[in-house]
Prior knowledge:
The protein is mainly α. 59% of the residues lie in helices and 10% in strands. It contains 11 helices and 5 strands, in the order H-H-H-H-H-H-H-H-E-E-H-H-E-E-H-E. It has helices spanning 15-38, 46-77, 88-96, 100-112, 117-124, 130-139, 143-172, 175-187, 209-232, 239-249, 284-296; strands spanning 190-195, 201-206, 259-266, 277-281, 301-308. A 3-stranded antiparallel beta sheet has the order 4-3-5, covered by helices on one side. The chain has a two-stranded antiparallel sheet with strand order 1-2.
Amino acid sequence: GVSVASTTTTAFRSPQEAANVASRVYDAAGLLGSALGDLDARMFVPADAVELTAVFARIVKLGSAGVTLLAGRVVDTGGWATEGHRSPADWLAHEMGTGVGAAISLLGTAERLDANPTTEDALRAGDVSGPEADVITSTAKSAEEEKNLLNTARRRGHKGLKDEAARTKAARESEETAMDRYRRIHAARYLRTRSCSDGWFRLDGAFTPDAGARILAALAPEQKKVFNDARRAGTREAPDAYAADALVNLLPGTATTTSANITLNTDAAAIEDVPSSVELGWRPRDVQAASSSLSHGGVAVTGATCASRDSRSAGR
């Protein structure tokens, strides 16, 4: 005999009742297969084609409901193992002709139906699809949320349901949960530095959102200034390069607006035609620009020294 567990809608308590249900399902499948064998879409006027398509869509939902309700039973009893498959999801994917991911989602829905009886009733009635039942049962944490999501599925379809599910989860998230997440991020913050064998000095960091916002707010105006200075000088570099310069410029002791006396050491043959010094910005690119200009004029530049007018950035 066959023993069938009770459900929220109908309690099958005898093998005879189970056999009766199975017989009706087999008969329905046979009738559907026979009708499809004779179906020629060209025989229907547009209005009838639309109506019949809606009927088949409901049949798809009903079929999905049957698979969902019975798959849980197969998993509970281990029936899938007799078919030689590696897992319940592998067996179900084979039966449905889908990927394993879809099978896993359906099995998850089957597990959650006991806690969502209203959704199970809607699934049995063909009011919601399997994917919609998955969204509802994985989101709802109360009967009120379940009812709201079911109504949304009926009115707005799958896309509207997913949007409402996202809003439901967000609304459920308490301030305490948000603070716990912030504390977790803060506890994991870091700033790491290292010197590489190829000469690079590298930074890597992770910060809380508010700290990141402060960093970006401080960098933005200085990065814009670096960009504008570069444009005036006729140079073009990647935005990341300007951001790196801006970060260095913001360090204490760095005078971004200070000019300096740049003394270029040249070859003796051309020295009388070249000024001994020129007022430039302090940045290395300004020294490079001046050196390049002199070199194109036939003057060999052998070195440069920088004596800053700002004691905070004096150096060589």
